[in-house]
Amino acid sequence: MHATLQLMNEFDFPPIERRRVETLQVNLGYKCNQTCLHCHVNAGPTRTEMMEAQTIDSVLAFLQAADVNTLDLTGGAPELNAHFHRLVAAARALGVEVIDRCNLTILEEPGYEDLGDFLAGQRVQVVASLPCYLEDNVDRQRGNGVFQKSLRALHKLNGLGYGKRGSGLTLNLVYNPQGPSLPPPQEKLEREYRQHLGGRYGIEFNQLFTLANMPIQRFGSTLVSKGQFGSYMRLLKNSYREENLDAVMCRSMLSVDWQGYLYDCDFNQMLGLPLQLAGKPKLKLADIVVRDLEGNPIVVRDHCFGCTAGQGSSCGGALK
């Protein structure tokens, strides 16, 4: 695995500051039932890092004390965490919206057959990774057979009401490019997804989010191995659009790793760049008062150009 942070020590991304924290994004662990080529977490079946009960409790205490609208759960496969159900149910009882960043195939894993029913019962928003609507492309990026497993999971979610008009159950899909290129226009690609998935497979969804691949962890290492890291970074920098700065997700999101440490975003978490507040290193949720983060400088490096290039990219898709 090639480290990429050392390749971004000379950076010229403009300084930005935080606004009010609206979303708490929590990485419940790096273990996953898949090993995807574009994964910026380097997640997989052999990873052992998982958030423990005490840290789950600190997340819930923070949600109860802070005025945070949304809990965004990610991984790995967040559902593999033994405390996933407890965390979701407790957050929903507090009136917090919950997002589950789901890889779809987890719904077919032994012991997770009732996961869809639980998510629907808690009215959790599902953001599901489906990096293409073509079988060969998905299997090449995510593993053999993943596309067909994903289709079965999508049909199950549709059967529960997800993606159906008027159901109130939100199902959004996520697209990632196959290689070192920027995503195509989100609206146009969403129409193509609807036409292909709906027309051929009868699948419904609410929105498509297009995300740029970040030059870190597994994807970044692949770029280095292929001699493409420098050219991809130049593409991101040359495609920078200043107007995207106002909408980048780190302005209103706080990232928490599996040990409870704080970062400005999930990408900084994977690079080991912790949130900085008054010079204090390696802060945890219990160490902060959320209002003190407003106006705080965000830790930036050149990977941040990935969020501002072209139409922009965030956990909620294109910015423009």
Explained architecture:
There is one protein chain. Strands 6-5-4-3-2-1-7-8 form an eight-stranded mixed beta sheet. The chain has ten helices and eight strands. It has 320 residues and is an alpha/beta fold. The protein is 30% helix and 11% strand. The model has no long low-confidence stretch (mean pLDDT 90). It starts with 22 loop residues before the first strand and ends in a 12-residue tail after the last helix.
Detail the topology: elements first, then pairings.
Elements: E1 23-27, H1 53-65, E2 70-74, H2 84-93, E3 97-102, H3 115-121, E4 125-129, H4 135-142, H5 146-159, E5 171-175, H6 186-201, E6 207-210, H7 217-225, H8 229-238, E7 253-256, E8 262-263, H9 266-271, H10 305-308
Parallel strand pairs: 1-2, 1-7, 2-3, 3-4, 4-5, 5-6
Antiparallel strand pairs: 7-8
Labels describing this entry:
eight-stranded mixed β-sheet, TIM Barrel, 10 helices, 320 residues, alpha/beta
